[in-house]
Amino acid sequence: MAQRTKKTGFGDVCISPFLLQWTDSKLFGRPFFHRFALGINVPTGKYNKNNDINPGSNLYSFNSYYAFTMFITPKLTTSWRLSYLWNSENNNPNEMFNANNIQPGQAFHVNYALSYEFLNKLRVSLLAII
Fold first, then answer.
1. Which of 58, 86, 94, 130 could be stapled to 110 by a disulfide with Cβ–Cβ 3.0 to 4.6 Å?
2. What is the 3-state secondary structure (H, E, C) of the chain?
3. What is the pTM of this model?
4. Cα separation, 22 vs 32, whole angstroms
5. Is the model's pLDDT at 2 over the cut of 50?
6. How many structural domains is the chain composed of?
7. Does residue 1 belong to any structural domain of this protein?
8. How far apart are the first and last CA of the chain?
């Protein structure tokens, strides 16, 4: 049986230097709220290429998103979040990769919800993540 060891350390720092939000907007005459944000993960966390799991990633990640909520009717709303993630190269990967550097893939994903207020201030929602 493998010996268990305890290792701790700080993870990467996440910053969001840019956030733009619009309120009191209208789309097709209906209330519409939306925002755009840029998030950056900075490789400040503890990383050791000999560890299978690390608190730090040893790479930069840029994760931007556009999110909005629209009131289709006063009781029916839809909310969406469209996200894009890009990662830089890790120039010191674990030896199991048998490579000098690796670059995790890019990702585009969507979260959406449909919500209906069936009692005063009580809503039921249908959620999905793609």
1. 130
2. CCCCCCCCCCCCEEEEEEEEEEEEEEECCEEEEEEEEEEEEECCCCCCCCCCCCCCCCCCEEEEEEEEEEECCCCEEEEEEEEEEEECCECCCCHHHCCCCECCCCEEEEEEEEEEEEECCEEEEEEEEC
3. 0.79
4. 9
5. no
6. 1
7. no
8. 39
